[in-house]
């Protein structure tokens, strides 16, 4: 007679790789020493023996998420405007696929080794492709990325209100200006995100070309 199946997870070897794998499956907001230990079928002591603490564990998971992500780089004939919009859309997709990664991206520190290397590689590609100074390349990419993260996390996310509310506001006759801001054609969250990011990109490109930009 077969023994009943155990509900206890089978123990897995505790390594940075297995901890990161378990953390990705849990998603960053649910990553704790206890949750990762339970996912691996080990004690919390086994986790603490391999990591400095909860913050380091979350960072380990976030870094692995970013190592698995390939940010789009400008093509040889791609205008900078289009390349930055593509980067913004990729950032939005990354944020939506990986809850919690937005907070990590906006709080990078010197210990965010792989994330900083990735950021530097993207900025270097922009610098070389578009003949920019290091300051132009850095601030063009950072400005677009930060706005894309904010819009993806806060505005154009799964909790975005239904279009019917916009239509109701557009139909208001007691308001003078606000209804005119609502289009009668629904762009949808993707289109609205790109509309907002296009404004950021156009402004960023104009700013980095200002004669006194390097002195700001």
Task: Quickly describe the structure.
With 216 residues, this protein is mainly α. The protein is 60% helix and 0% strand.
Q: By helix and strand content, what is the structural category?
A: mainly alpha
Tally of discrete structural domains? 2
Shape: flat
The CATH class name of the largest domain reads Mainly Alpha
Output mean pLDDT: 89
InterPro entries: Tet_transcr_reg_TetR-rel_C_sf
Structural commentary:
The chain has 2 domains: 51 residues, Orthogonal Bundle (Arc Repressor Mutant, subunit A), CATH 1.10.10; 143 residues, Orthogonal Bundle (Tetracycline Repressor, domain 2), CATH 1.10.357. Helix 1 crosses helix 4 and helix 5 packs across helix 8. With 216 residues, it is mainly alpha-helical. It starts with 15 loop residues before the first helix and ends in an 8-residue tail after the last helix. Helix content is 60%, strand content 0%. The protein has 10 helices and no strands. It is flat, with a radius of gyration of 22 Å.
